[in-house]
Amino acid sequence: MERDDYGNIDRRLALAYGLLILGLMLGVMVATGWYFHKAMEREQNRLAGLVTSVLADSLGKVSFSGTHRMRLLIGELQDKYQDLSYIRLLNPAGEVVASSGQLLETPQDKEAGQEFFRALLDHPDTLLNRRLTEGKERVREVGMAYRGGFDNRLQGVLLLGISETGTHSALVEGLLYVLLLLVALLGVGMLATHFISRHFALPVRKLAHERAEGERRLGFVLNAIDCAIWEWDLATNQVTLDEHWAEMLGYRLEELEPITSDTARRLTHPGEVEDNAARVWAHLNGQTERYISETRALHKNGDWVWVRDNGMVTERDENGRPLKMIGARQDITARKRVEQAALQESERFKALIKASDTGVWEWDAQQQALWCGAEYFSMLGRDMAEFAGITDLQVVWDELLHPEDRDEAVRKFADYLAGDTMQLYENEFRMRHADGSWVWISSRGRTLPDADGKPTALTVGAHINVTSLKEAQASLLESQQQLQVISDSIPDSMVYRIECGFNGEHRRFTYVSRGVEQLHGINVEQALADAQRVYEQFIIDAESMAAYEAECIAEMKTFRMETEIIRPDGEHRWMLLISSPRRLPNGYLVFDGIELDITGRRQQEQKIMELNTTLEKRVAERTAELSATLDNLQRAQEELLQSEKLASLGALVAGVAHELNTPIGNALMVATSFDFARKQLEQGMQQGLTRSALQDFLNEVRDGSQIIERNLARSAELISSFKQLAVDQTSYQRRPFGLRTLSHEIVTTLQPTLRKTPFILRNELSEDVVLDSYPGPLGQVLINLINNALTHAFIGREQGIIRLGCLMEGENVHITVCDDGVGIGEQQQKKIFDPFFTTQLGKGGSGLGLHIVYTLVTGLLGGRIEVRSNPDEGTCFTLILPVVAPQY
């Protein structure tokens, strides 16, 4: 019966029936008072349960934002709902975190309150209640422990006080009215009947009014915490939903009709239907106090929405079978996304720490204590269990530091803490490994800020094992020093590297040998500081040089140029520049090359050209001087040959130096892998080494050793080939040698140049041919013929083959150098052995290569040379040499 129904009671009917109504109403009022008392008690329990559950879930989400947000939410709810005596939030230690109102608790209730608090902690997610009284004030206290945070751990206890004073007063007032009614009936009869007819419904009206007001306020609370209400009549299987339930999934309520228990099941994710049904039936069968479930529900747009249902059975029959169930639903999609993101971030961070072999540490300046993660010790070959029970690991850090690094490392960290701690802390030092070795550690960290951006007492950081990097740097320094010694030892030359940016926008020397002092009259430091001090000495037009450099960069081909310079002292010198462009891993362009002083050669060339120009006249006029002129010419040619050999040797130096980087780098990488495998083996030994783990380590060592052996053998082969070839080309020593061995050394030395081209060199020389001759000049001849083919034979082509072959005929050997290139024209074949004849004038070609070949073959080697060629059919040079060279 609603409160307005009582206002429509016909007072005249009540007076007419008089005493009959009196007896009936007396029983009705007693029954009604008892019913409303129980109904209000159940309603308050139900409302308290729902409000507490929803509020706890909300606070679980709010806990991500901190205590301040909790207090704001509690304050807002306290102001809005006056029937709440207080809302209080306690942490697991029993300390009040946030509170509103005044706690109603007498000294006698202290012990009972502690037992109540412990019971809540022992039964998380379970709703418990008790009554508190003080004078006329009566409060029902409802409590529940709640969870929250990324790991859904226990956050604390929520206490909600609901005033029962109004309800109790109303019931007492009703009983007083009944007593007054009985007294009045005895005294005044019909007058009392008339009086009762006007006032008997007042207590009931007040209770109905309070119930309606409570329902209205509950609606406000549910709206404030974004909840939808559902009710399930199990007898009819009809489900009553509010509009918000449908709106969560993008529907209107009428779109879901007819609404039964199958409606929610139909919209639940298929993988969660069975689990959700099991939770429902467990609660219906009395196995759980509440039904709580988090599932995904299908939105109208096809997305899955995470929802949380809280409910309980509100009515059962005399056999305990459930009749009605009521609950609330919340959209927790945002919370789930935050939890998932936090979980992924946490897993990503853990994986990153583990994969990077990084040791994490934390320094608490307030407690003066150091904490370290497990990886901190594993990189030192130690187990964190060794240091169990040590609260301050700073002592351990001090003990493990290298004696030479300890004072500096401690001082740097102290200086950081005393200065601007919001900057990055960086330090490097050595720490003792469990095997007695020293591990280089790079330590970095930063002080954590508070909410206002001010530094806190906590500084966090990481240790990174950089031992391999330090060893690699030392090895690189050793290689650089070796290259420095070699390049500084080459006479009349300068070895260099020029860095040109990404697209050749600038020129900067990153390496220069000491030869720059002899060639350009400036020291190494000046050249490294300003490359223009070298470039400004070149007489050649800067635009022409830049255009040629751009062409070499575009085609990634060797830069070769002869140019004149003017030294700071005014002296004119001629230089031969040979360099190879390549890109570094960072994308920068560099030229690795050598600069040779060819002034003597150019002077002799000039004299030869002048002699050739005036030869006919001078033969007639100065016949007597012919012998001296021929002597000068021979000496000039010998000097030119020596300069050409030095130029070729310089190109080989640049190529071999570049070629050595690959096998040495591979060996270094495998050595680094050995160190990592060693650490894994040590960790395995600490945890219990298995046979399979040992076998894997041995297999890895075997494979790595083979890789190191192959790469070092490759390096030794390159150095041996270059060494032998360099000795042979710088001296005319006669000795027996295998033709195949000599050709192998030549092919090995030319590999850096060949790899930059798409062309193939095939060595088909026989291993049985042994000559007693001059390997140096013969090697120079073969190199010149191969380089001549690479330069001229394949112009305009993207592929080609050069073949080296031989054939024994009596006391002579026929050595062939053939290509399948564009060939040589008939007119050009008549001039190819003439000095200074070249088709690459201005591009680094001197025109002396084949002339030197002809001179060496017909002179020192005691043989002859033939050439066969047709356009587009290739060219074949044949050297006909005696097996035993002539004696000189």
- CATH fold-level assignment of the largest domain: Beta-Lactamase
> Main sheet?
5 strands, antiparallel
What is the fourth-level CATH superfamily of the largest domain? PAS domain
The number of distinct β-strands equals 27
The structural domain count equals 6
Cα distance spanning the termini = 139 Å
Mean pLDDT, as a whole number? 77
Provide the low-confidence segments as ranges.
1-15, 60-65, 200-204, 724-730
The level-1 CATH class of the largest domain: Alpha Beta
Descriptive notes:
- The chain is of the alpha+beta class and 888 residues long.
- It has six domains: 3-216, Beta-Lactamase; 227-339, Beta-Lactamase (2-Layer Sandwich), CATH 3.30.450; 357-464, PAS domain (Beta-Lactamase, 2-Layer Sandwich); 490-597, Beta-Lactamase; 612-731; 736-888, Histidine kinase-like ATPase, C-terminal domain (Heat Shock Protein 90, 2-Layer Sandwich), CATH 3.30.565.10.
- It is 50% helix and 24% strand.
- The chain has 26 helices and 27 strands.
- The strands form six sheets. The protein has a five-stranded antiparallel beta sheet, sandwiched between helices. Strands 7-6-10-9-8 form a five-stranded antiparallel beta sheet, sandwiched between helices.
- The longest helix has 62 residues, at 626-687.
- It is elongated and about 170 Å long.
